[in-house]
């Protein structure tokens, strides 16, 4: 899969890599959403080493605010919205 070079992809790359390198500094609701993404992608993207949807490096892509697979998980949510999402989707 080719990775198209767009401003959005460049932003996602930079943001994801910064967040990956500073993950211990991220708020708990962001850490939880990253963990959720990594778990949801465990059987395909993780095995392939790249996102099966956009072709970006994995796990790096899981750290970007923007979701490339909204059927699996949304863009990063606020703390309140994340709590509601967890309830609605029975995520512990």
Question: How would you explain this protein's 3D organization?
Answer:
The chain is 46% helix and 0% strand. The mean pLDDT is 91. The chain is globular and about 35 Å long. With 92 residues, the chain is an all-alpha fold. It has one domain. The chain is built from four helices and no strands.
Question: Main attributes?
Answer:
0% strand, 4 helices, 92 residues, single chain, mainly alpha
Count up the domains: 1
Please work out how many helical segments DSSP would assign: 4
Biggest beta-sheet profile: none
Ends apart, CA distance between termini = 34 Å
Short description:
The chain has 4 helices and no strands. The chain has helices at 7-21, 28-40, 45-48, 79-88. The protein starts with 6 loop residues before the first helix and ends with a helix.
List the helices and strands and how they pair.
Elements: H1 7-21, H2 28-40, H3 45-48, H4 79-88
